Amino acid sequence: MLPSIEPSEVGTTGLIWLFLSYGYVLYFASNLISEGSDLLMLVPSMAGLVGGVVLPLLGAVPDGAIMLFSGLGDIESAQETLSVGVGALAGSTIMLLTVPWALSIFGGRVDLDEHGTPKYLGKPKLTPKDNKMDELYKTGVSLMEAVKHGAIIMAITTIPYFLIQVPAFYLHGPSEEIAEGEHWWSLAGLIVCVSGFVIYLGMQFRLSQKGMDKGARIAVVKKLLQKGEVSLAGALAPQVKAVEGKASQSLAVQAAKEYQAVSDSEISIHPPPAVADYLKEVLLEAFMKYDENRDGTLDKSEVRLFFQDFHEELTSEDIDDLFEKFDTDNSGSISFDEFIGACYVFIQKHTELTKEEQRAKRQGRPTYEQAKSRRGTMHEALVGNMFKDNPEEEEEIPEELVDLDPDAQQAAIKKKALAMLFIGTSLVIIFSDPMVDVMQQIAVELHMSPFYVSFILAPLASNASEVIASQYYAAKKTRKTITVSLTALEGAASMNNTFCLSIFMGLIFVRGLAWQYSAETIAIVVVEFLMAVVAQKDVLTTFHAALILSIFPLSIALVATLEAFGLD
After folding, report:
1. Which one, out of 65, 140, 210, 355, has a CA that is 20 to 30 A from the CA of 296?
2. What is the pLDDT of residue 556?
């Protein structure tokens, strides 16, 4: 399988280069899979399937591929390289539950009041502290029920580890004899893993269908809008239509017609309550960023700037029409509720316009880059603040999407997302096998167990995208975004316990390999149960984050200690 470079023949420098090269490709592939899944979340008809099934499944593919290829080849070498896969499993699971979890608390922390309750409504949410003790004990995050529930599910999915450890604890001798004794136990473990995997995906799908993952979907929409991958109407029109339902479609059409006709009527057009709530959650942060003087309203220049930065070019006449309809007190500014109504009517109008009408409407207008250039310092100040998490992303705008009408954007989103998923998965399959060989050779060069090498190095390539995503959401400093961040990490651990572990159980049963990893298993289970207990707290402080971060190196020490006492 390509690439076919033999790690044992390239020397130390070549080995480092191979690891960095393969690691980057796997990281890039993981990002493609993650971003492709995010794009599909913009398609309402697929959001439930994607959020409940596709996203958690594809998120486990990079780890799963490394584990699969670690157990292939001739039996003798497969038994040796299986340690690489076990190290990847342990490293991925423990790393996700410690390093990004702790960093999410640190990035998402807010001030605590005198009762220890996070002050999410404070302005600012995080203030400078006089000393380190206040920083550690008077800042933190709130854990919602979804995090506590996800932790319990994660603990339950560790059952297969206990099954395979029954024979592993009392069987000793050559690997062949151990493998024979574990044969039927591994089948039982495989059945439990696959059953748990199917049940977990079914549970996630049902929760998604009921809208329980609404926070995650909204976070994805806000992220893609911020990155400029879709326009305002392209991202929200399908979502608004889905939220409205058939009962309110006639109202939506009427709203669009009234705005399109620029009626002089004093009747205000307001979105249905469910739609208003959705738009408020998506657009509140943007409204606050563009409210330059912090008076709780936006004037015409601020509204026009908002639409331009979200790739919707409106003329002065368009803005005047919106203000005539929604600036009911003629103050020259609109409140947040009026702003939501204006966005709703604009989105509905865009839904009705044909692609040809939109193209004709854009003729003679300045391009986005020209408009941005004219906005100068004001634009840079506002947008630089809004996109402070990743300022360089604003320049990388895929014009093939933002220049399309909403329906065309939906079709283009599906095509682009599926292409990203296909390419990402293909790269993972191609490069996971040589990556296993590289980590095995690194272990040989360092004269240490392949487990420790893959424990530390494998997550850097296969889980980097998950770490980055969790930090992005946590940095928003809200209860909902910290919940999205932490539940995603718990979900990844649950997938490791079901999908990834099922690969090992299958290899042991089908290929006759031996599970000789008692110390590693104990470390995984101990960390997962410890974090499941920690996740039941209502508040985690920055001090808790420091303790959680220390678990990662301590888990390595635990494995080494258990092996020193004679465990496999």
Report:
1. 140
2. 93
Most confident of 42-46, 155-159, 172-176: 155-159
Q: Are 25 and 464 in contact (CB under 8 A)?
A: no
What is the widest separation between alpha-carbon atoms in the chain?
Answer: 89
Q: The tokens of 254 are what?
A: 């009427």
**Mutual angle of helices 273-290 and 336-352, in 10-degree steps:** 110
| pTM for this entry | 0.73
pLDDT tens digits, one per residue of 392-428: 333 333 445 555 666 676 777 788 888 888 898 888 8
Closest C-alpha to 471, from 459, 458, 481 = 481
Tens digit of each residue's pLDDT (9 = 90 or more) over 516-566: 889 999 999 999 999 999 999 999 999 999 999 999 999 999 999 998 887
Residue type, 496: N
The pLDDT assigned to 262 comes to 39
Q: Tell me, letter by letter, the H, E, C secondary structure of 32-84.
A: HHHHHHHHHCCCHHHHHHHHHHHHHHHHCHHHHHHHHHHCCCCHHHHHHHHHH
Torsion sign, CA atoms 202, 207, 209, 213? negative
DSSP three-state, residue 465: helix
Q: How far apart are CA 151 and CA 535, in angstroms?
A: 6
Annotate 298-329 with b (16+ C-beta within 10 A) or e (fewer): bbbebbbbbbbbbbbbbeeebbebbbebbbee
pLDDT tens profile 277-287: 888 888 888 88
Token duo for residue 200? 């977990």
Cα–Cα distances (Å) from 276 to 77, 225, 235, 240, 343, in that order, read 60, 18, 16, 9, 10
φ, ψ for residue 447 (rounded to 5)? 55, 50
110-111 sheet: strands from edge to edge:
110-111, 139-142, 539-541
Nearest to 345 by CA among 264, 284, 403, 279: 279
Residue among 145, 150, 102, 93 at smallest CA distance from 528:
93
Alpha-helix runs per DSSP H in 127-213: 132-137, 145-156, 159-170, 175-209
